[in-house]
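JOB MANIFEST
job_type = single_chain_structure
chain_count = 1
residues = 334
[input]
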Amino acid sequence: MDRRLVAVTAMALGIGLLVHSAPGSAAVQTELKTDTPNAVVAPHGATNEAKEEPGAAADDASFRVQVDGWIRSLASQDEFAHWQGARWTRYPLGPGMHGWVVLIQKDGREIGYLIVSAAEDGSLKLTEYGKGDKPLFGLETLYRSLLRLGRIESSIELWSEHDESPVRPERIYFSPLHAVWRLASGNERIYIDAATGEQLPLTAASFDGLAPYDEAPSVSASASPRRSLALPAFDPFDNTHWIADTPIAKPQDSRPFLDALDAGGSPITFVANLYDRTILAPFAVTGYHDWGGGAVYVRLEQDGSRFVPLDVLTEYGGFYRRPGAALPALAMPD
């Protein structure tokens, strides 16, 4: 099922809903290879260069070492084994965002991504990451979206990052839950979800009050997840209890939350209220990666798996356990 933005009238919910699906991905063992960070081989055989942000905090060599380390660590996990032998390319996020999206490619296709941010001291942090053929800020997803929306003609081939691209796409990333393409089409500005490719009912004012997320965990390039869990995917719309239910108490400590996920029970849905509560976005919670030292990334399903820091989720939404098998371990005090 393709994800679609569902407009809900005030008589129903008075909010927008993002619909999610969760395709699986295969794992293949090969030798890890990485591309240089500023040379991209685009789908359909087109070769171009990714534009770099002037005054980037990280030099090419240190950036390559850090990203190669993270990719190698993740590729050692069973569900990321298909990242071995992959290439990657980085692109700067929007002005003032101090970060990059690293798109991971293999056999001419996008298979995953990292979001890398630069701290004030110049160190690099892993803000989020994910796998699947619809990575965050994936060029193929944007291209298909623009075709569907009639913003470009079918005769136009997939471009990379040239200024003469027909819509001048710009990546806007305030947090893992606030990531969009902003596109100029004449005097008009449109916003497209960076993961789903759906046009969102946003304006410039929708971003008022948002500040770029700058509290990403510190994860060493040589580290590996110490503890992990992968649960079966499910569709949050199979049971919409989360629309009216009260969320479970926000986790003040990640350990009991992870213990409760390990213990199983009924599915947990994370629901985010975004852009001044104009969009309600439900995600299936299907596991986690615990890298140690407080670096906990919750596994969410969104046309693939996204791993998002726990503290971002608790800031912008709540967790809902499907009625019937709630676990006391999740009833943590505020």
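[summary]
The helical segments are 60-75, 139-148, 254-263, 310-316.
The CA atoms of residues 103 and 311 lie 24 Å apart.
exit_status = 0
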